[in-house]
Amino acid sequence: MTNENKNHDKFLHEENKIREVEAPDGSIIKVDPLNDYFLTDRPVVREPKNKVVEKFLNWARAESLWVLGFGTGCGSIEIPPLVTPRFDAYRFGVQMRPTPRQSNVFIISGYLAVKTLKRVIRTYEQMQGPKYVLALGSCTINGGMYWDSYNTINRLDHFIPVDVYVAGCMPRPEALLAGFAKLKERIKAGRAEGANEYAEKFDWYKANQKKIINDWNMPDYNW
Amino acid sequence: MENIIKDIQNRFEVSDIVNQRDNITFVTCEKEKTIALITHMKKNLGFKHFVLMTAVDWIEDGLFQLTYILNNPKKKLDVAIRTFISRENATMETAHKLWKQVSTYQRELKEMFGIDFPGSPRVNESFILEGWNDIPPYRRDFQTKEYAEKTYFPRPGRKTNDPSEYMKKNMS
Predict the structure, then answer these.
(1) Strands of A65-68's sheet, edge to edge?
(2) Is residue B17 part of a domain?
(3) In this structure, are A128 and A174 located in the same domain?
(4) Is-above-0.80 flag for pTM?
């Protein structure tokens, strides 16, 4: 879309429209938020270092999982017992963080409405690589009980790469701990390359995302 | 309750009075008189609390049914007011001036059923469905399953069984 007809896009939010602002020294500056406020470069594939270093790094990554506190569906209610004394995920090196910039595990907890999917994609792109996705519940696998709903997606792996699925409706915190154990195995084996996969198949993921999200009023990729 | 019903019967020609329970009654009112009736009930009869507002799609009759449920907190009574509006170019007078929160219900009904409420605040903004470009999904002529299969990349291999036959086969 060219800059001229951007402002006529009915889905574009007010704060993202091209406008003129006054600087403190009185000069007028033209601002195009979608280009000026976001880095819009495509993601790049991170080449692994040599084998021994990469093995050590993978071990370190596996033992330090920082989970983003973002609950999407009914499964987010399983997270509080997971991190509190009863199940105590902290003893496995799993901790919660409040912002995507500081975390590397994204738990998609349950069904995703299209509105939530948009936020999930933005959040996923803002996380630092290497990043891992743990998909919780049957809704993320094939839609679960919402498979024929008008507003919930069926398969998460068409929109962001998924490392581990935890089946169930809803899985209990024990299942989640098993999921974390599986994720650690994958990371240590060097198979959890979601961020690289996202960069490689970027066009395919974007096409899928844009097919569902009709009011695409954000940059293609932002981080 | 009887006095209240008699009062609004005399003033507003309500019909189809159904006493669902001792403390809840359903009445049907004409479209043009509905807002006047609700105003009267709020101002003069003590129905100060707005419980909810919802719609039903009677596709065979070409009608939408709107239901407003009002509550009298002092006497602990509910009255539900039904009104029927045409399905074609569905429009209804807005009631947001009586209770502010009505505008949220009206915004949702606009999105889900396509019923317009001219003058209601933010009624044309998207509420849950962002960027929806099909017919409103709660209308009964919207084919939910077809839409989901067409749009949301269904995972192949899902099997569906008729429950009665499936149980017969497994119980024998």
Answers:
(1) A94-97, A65-68, A105-109, A132-136, A164-166
(2) yes
(3) yes
(4) yes
